[in-house]
Amino acid sequence: MNSFTYFMPTKVFFGKDCIVKNKEVFSDFGLKALILTGKNSAKKNGSLAHITSALSDRKIEYVIFDEVEENPSVETVLKVAEIGKKEKIHFVIGIGGGSPMDCAKAVACLVKNPQRGREILTADEQVSYIPVIEVPTTAGTGSETTPYSIVTDHEKRTKYSISQKIFAQVCFLDASYMNTLSAKVTNNTAIDALSHLIEGYMAKKANFFSDKLAEIGMDIFKKCIPALKKREYSLEIREQLMLASTIAGIVIAQAGTSLPHAMGYYLTYEKNIPHGRANGLLTKAYLELFPEKTKVNCILEHLGLQSLEQLAEFLKEVLDTEETFTEEDIYYYTKQVSKNKVKLSSYPYDLTEQDISFIYKNSVL
Ligand code: NAP
Ligand code: FE
């Protein structure tokens, strides 16, 4: 067996009302918190109220920034970090989908190193960071158990994973916050979790632990397939989706993501296609490209599917595919992705531009 390491230091609380039931943990992190959310959802789904009530109960001060946009920009990260420094905060809490959770991690580095700026996001050396607490309200990105923070760079017209690796100290998984999620966001984000399980499983860095976790994640995901197709989600299904997503986060924390993520960033930037959906469009063609099918067949088996065609049918059904790309789009994306040597090296075989273009051309659109 190949040698490997396994590291995932985040303490996970799971279950309804787990924030309020475990409020004493907040006192471990300091006397003042910065809470990051998107514009609306955290106020509507009860997560923000639970956090502020727990903090008040522990006599912890807080400031709220409620304008983290989808696919947060470097500019937003820098702006929020300035607020954090001015307010002398001790820890950051990200509530929401991957966007506020990722923003919280990048901000944690900038606040801890006040003399430094934007370059920290791409610096070679790992810097220290103030504690981060994450509350996912989509399932999802798994950002609560990954060390990654993805930001949008408008100068480079794409998204990238910052060079700093930041694990949350604690995360709270309460699937009831997802009751306000639309069917569209539920399905798109569920497919992000599925793409993490699949890409982590197929990546060059996959190891014994990450593979076993990915298989458990896929077994859980399989139970959710009928609900995703019907677009009817009980709390039990929401909980299963949350578990699959958090496990998928642990998988990619070890093995990383691969081509659909690297390729999907262009679909998100140029066509405004939500992240999970962008990956999902490319997943079937990505698996088709693999010359060796043993693990591809394991994926199908764990998901209860007979063939890659059935996987494509499932993806089309749950994503309601509607976008189109032109030959010129594909040419541009292929050229850009081909420059991303780090991401391409996650594929266990040599890759050509034709291979990348094959995946775009054979997407489920
Ligand atoms: P998101 O961009 O965080 O949020 C998408 C939308 O869902 C927003 O409009 C948000 O509204 C809404 N929303 C969130 N929770 C809701 C709830 N419970 N009820 C109703 N609406 C809700 O979406 P995401 O797909 O979770 O995150 C995507 C980001 O994560 C991308 O930038 C992606 O690159 C990144 N990502 C990170 C990792 C990682 O390892 N760190 C992995 C994969 C993806 P509000 O704005 O009002 O909150
Ligand atoms: Fe993702």
Blueprint (SSEs and pairs):
Elements: E1 11-14, H1 18-21, E2 32-36, H2 41-44, H3 47-57, E3 61-65, H4 74-86, E4 91-96, H5 98-112, E5 132-136, E6 150-153, E7 158-161, E8 170-173, H6 183-202, H7 208-230, H8 235-255, H9 259-271, H10 275-289, H11 294-303, H12 308-319, H13 327-338, H14 341-344, H15 353-361
Parallel strand pairs: 1-8, 2-3, 2-4, 4-5, 5-8
Antiparallel strand pairs: 6-7
Helix pairs in contact: 4-5, 6-7, 6-8, 6-10, 7-8, 7-11, 9-10, 9-13, 10-12, 10-15, 13-15
Bound molecules: NADP nicotinamide-adenine-dinucleotide phosphate and fe (iii) ion (FE).
Keywords for this entry:
single chain, 365 residues, alpha/beta, six-stranded parallel sheet, two-stranded antiparallel ribbon, 15 helices, globular, binds NADP nicotinamide-adenine-dinucleotide phosphate, binds fe (iii) ion
Explain what this protein looks like in three dimensions.
The protein has 365 residues and is an alpha/beta fold. The protein is built from 15 helices and eight strands. It has helices spanning 18-21, 41-44, 47-57, 74-86, 98-112, 183-202, 208-230, 235-255, 259-271, 275-289, 294-303, 308-319, 327-338, 341-344, 353-361; strands at residues 11-14, 32-36, 61-65, 91-96, 132-136, 150-153, 158-161, 170-173. Strands 1-8-5-4-2-3 form a six-stranded parallel sheet, with helices on both faces. A two-stranded antiparallel sheet has the order 6-7. Helix 6 (183-202) runs parallel beside helix 10 and helix 10 packs antiparallel against helix 12. The longest helix is centred in the middle third of the chain and has 23 residues, at 208-230. The two termini are 39 Å apart. The model has no long low-confidence stretch (mean pLDDT 96). Bound molecules: NADP nicotinamide-adenine-dinucleotide phosphate and fe (iii) ion (FE). NADP nicotinamide-adenine-dinucleotide phosphate binds at residues 37-42, 45, 70-71, 96-99, 102, 137-138, 140-143, 146, 148-150, 159, 177-178, 180-181, 185, 189, 192, 275-276. NADP nicotinamide-adenine-dinucleotide phosphate is lined by residues 37-42, 45, 70-71, 96-99, 102, 137-138, 140-143, 146, 148-150, 159, 177-178, 180-181, 185, 189, 192, 275-276.
